[in-house]
Design brief:
alpha+beta, about 45% helix, single chain, about 350 residues, 10 strands
């Protein structure tokens, strides 16, 4: 997997033929739907996690991992099922059934095969709502047709630095959605973006996969060109941002989740551009997940107040920086660093996304 393309996710939406859509179901109908599907799914070796009885920290962890939407955690008659190595199954979310799987290592083609294998096994016991004219029927028009949603996770710090709004607008005109994790100020955090289609109504699944792979690589090329520009034309600003981020992670006594995510992202960019020299492999996505609120408190084994969370996160961050950059002082991290070979190559003509 590319260091710019962090991972892939696929979702598949299905509804049961002859039943109302979830958004028009009564509580009794939702309960009946759950009771109908539960034995079928458990009979396939899946575990029902029972969201209503689930501890709040475990819910938060699932939300942070992108496996469960925030709006579903307090809803009744929602079913969430997991099986090791298999896609997750969500009942009564936006549709009767939502199958999904995220992977850092598997391709979209591999995830596509897994999720349709699961759908085939479910279809042995369930008649899905289907129209010869419109395809698989869903409560939301943009989910109809294939009911399939492939998603690419992209790490775009240079584009985020120079401004990504125009690219996002251009992608929207082409039928794509570029989303991001955002804080209250609407600023993208950690420079991690998701790329997906606004709708998958008119073409076959394989076509959407190939298009998403192609546009993801084009965006990755533009990110590389912008990293080159950032390095060659703004090296002092770049080093300043990297060093400030290192200083915060290595010395802070209180560290918020948002500060951690932004600084980890900048540290990672510094490593990829050879500004920082780590002593071991640094998987910033994995390190971010470990220091998010839910993961942090589950590891601690208790619910913490805001200040206690920030103290614990700062303690772990300082320990991580010492481990990754062991026995290396900040000044020596950037002293006489060499330009990465990728930036010393003959300047190529900028490659952009034609929008």
């Amino acid at each position: 997997m590319s260091k710019i393309i962090l991972g892939n996710k696929v979702k598949l939406y299905r509804n049961i033929d002859g039943k109302n859509f979830v958004n028009t179901m009564s509580e009794e109908e939702l309960r009946e739907n759950l009771e109908f599907l539960d034995p079928i799914i458990r009979g396939m070796g899946y575990e029902n996690l029972d969201i209503e009885k689930m501890a709040s920290l475990k819910k938060l962890k699932l939300i942070e991992e992108g496996r469960l939407g925030k709006r579903f955690v307090e809803e009744k008659n929602i079913g969430f099922y997991q099986k090791v190595g298999e896609p997750d199954i969500l009942i009564n979310s936006s549709e009767h059934l939502e199958l999904s799987k995220f992977s850092r290592t598997q391709s979209l083609d591999e995830l596509y095969k897994e999720i349709y294998d699961l759908e085939g096994r479910l279809e042995e016991n369930i008649n899905f709502a289907f129209s010869p004219e419109y395809g698989y029927l869903t409560s939301r028009v943009f989910n109809a047709g294939t009911g399939f949603k492939p998603i690419a996770f992209l790490y775009l710090p240079a584009l985020n630095y120079f401004g990504i709004n125009e690219i996002a607008k251009g992608l929207s005109r082409l039928g794509y959605t570029l989303g991001s994790y955002r804080d209250r100020s609407k600023k993208a955090l950690a420079s991690i973006y998701t790329l997906s289609f606004e709708s998958t109504l008119t073409e076959e699944e394989g076509s959407y996969i190939e298009k998403l792979k192609l546009i993801s690589e084009e965006i990755a090329d533009v990110e590389r060109e912008n990293r080159k520009k950032l390095y060659l034309d703004n090296i002092i600003s770049l080093e300043d941002m990297v060093n400030r981020s290192y200083g915060l992670l290595a010395n802070a006594r209180l560290l918020s989740e948002e500060e951690m995510m932004q600084s980890m992202s900048m540290i990672n960019l510094g490593i990829e551009l050879s500004i920082l020299k780590p002593n071991r492999e640094f998987d910033f996505y994995q390190e971010i997940m470990k220091l998010r609120n839910g993961h942090l408190q589950i590891e601690r084994g208790s619910i913490l107040d805001l200040k206690s969370r920030d103290i614990l996160r700062a303690n772990k961050s300082r320990a991580l920086m010492k481990e990754v950059f062991k026995w290396v002082c900040l000044e020596s991290l950037v002293k006489n660093h060499k330009k990465p070979s990728s930036l010393l190559s003959k300047k190529q003509e900028n490659r952009g996304i034609h929008i």
